[in-house]
Design goal:
By secondary structure, the chain is of the alpha/beta class. It has 9 helices and 7 strands. The chain has helices spanning 3-14, 33-50, 69-76, 93-108, 148-159, 207-218, 247-254, 266-275, 305-309; strands at 58-62, 81-85, 171-174, 187-193, 219-230, 278-287, 310-319. The relative contact order is 0.15.
């Protein structure tokens, strides 16, 4: 057994002992306002390029992680309500207020979108990073809302977070969440940033399929989902080196970890889109050489060639 596999095995075994397993507490540092601004503007730019007239009012984020800041960026750019959904509570209210203040300054100065010089690994990439004036034209459907009353209402909601989204409250935060967390056809946009690949997708049960079913339930007809998905796995020479492990070995490596790479390729996400009544309108793929078909476990050998070349993708799909 090589050192890489040994580390994975030990991590999987340790996950069965809560006193040894730190889970998400091991994450250090929190995203800045610039990061949240960049993530939101990238999603919004690509979504509105695919569907120019789209203006989301109710916005949901799956897996906000360490901050609700991306949701704050959505609220400042015209959305009326935001809900962050996670498997555990991790966002810190005081930090989120600090991020909100940073975002207000960036919007007030029409700051350019931070690019690869600031965040070299952040996806999806854009063709241009100037402030997207086209999205906030005076005669357009969107507007920036940074008046003091609006900012104060967001700040108050961050400090007194609700796990139910009330009509006059701009921020909700639910952990853990489920199919019925949100009302049917109550949402305009669901987005995620490198989160869906951590939802389990097994033969007997699939959290990932459950998430697609939930999004299909929550979104109004014509509503949109926007997901940046990372198919890679660290600690290996090839981005998809984890496809080498047979199913039994992978279950040992995964252990009892609540969030862990699910090894699902692009084609399965596209299939789930169709199965749960979404029409894909944009796919931005990142191509990278990886593990060959011959070296992959049997589960992966019949996948389309495109899957073996796609290390990440951004998918925009419309609820039919």
């Amino acid at each position: 057994m090589d050192s890489r596999t040994l580390r994975l095995v030990l991590g999987g075994l340790k996950s069965y002992f809560p006193t040894l397993h730190t889970g998400d507490k091991g994450v250090s540092g929190r995203p800045t306002g610039a990061y949240c601004y960049s993530v939101w503007m990238r999603h919004l730019s690509i979504v509105t390029k695919a569907v120019p007239s789209f203006r989301p009012r109710a916005v949901v984020e799956i897996g906000p992680g360490e901050t609700l800041g991306v949701g704050c960026a959505a609220l400042l750019s015209g959305a009326e309500q935001y809900v962050g959904l996670d498997h555990v509570t991790r966002a810190d209210a005081r930090h989120d207020v600090q991020v909100l203040d940073e975002l207000v300054a960036m919007y007030a100065h029409h700051a350019p979108i931070p690019d690869e010089r600031v965040f070299p690994h952040l996806l999806p990439k854009l063709s241009a990073y100037n402030f997207p004036n086209r999205l906030f034209a005076d005669d357009g459907p969107r507007h920036i809302r940074i008046d003091e009353e609006r900012v104060q209402s967001i700040r108050a909601a961050l400090l007194d977070r609700q796990d139910v989204l009330y009509d006059n409250v701009p921020v909700g935060y639910v952990a853990p969440w489920g199919m019925r967390t949100l009302d049917r056809q109550s949402v305009d946009l669901v987005y995620s940033q490198a989160s869906l690949q951590e939802l389990a997708h097994d033969a007997d049960a699939s959290e990932l399929a459950g998430a697609f079913a939930a999004m299909s339930r929550w979104l109004r007809k014509g509503g949109i989902m926007s997901h940046q998905i990372d198919f890679s796995f660290p600690l290996g020479a090839e981005w998809n080196h984890h496809w080498h492990y047979p199913e039994t070995a992978w279950r040992v490596l995964r252990g009892n970890r609540q969030a862990f790479v699910n090894r699902v390729p692009l084609s399965v996400y596209l299939q789930l889109c169709d199965e749960y009544d979404f029409q894909v309108v944009s796919v931005k793929r990142v191509e990278q050489p990886g593990l060959t078909r011959e070296k992959a476990a049997p589960r992966f050998r019949d996948l389309p060639e495109e899957d073996f070349a796609t290390s990440s993708a951004h998918i925009v799909a419309v609820r039919r």
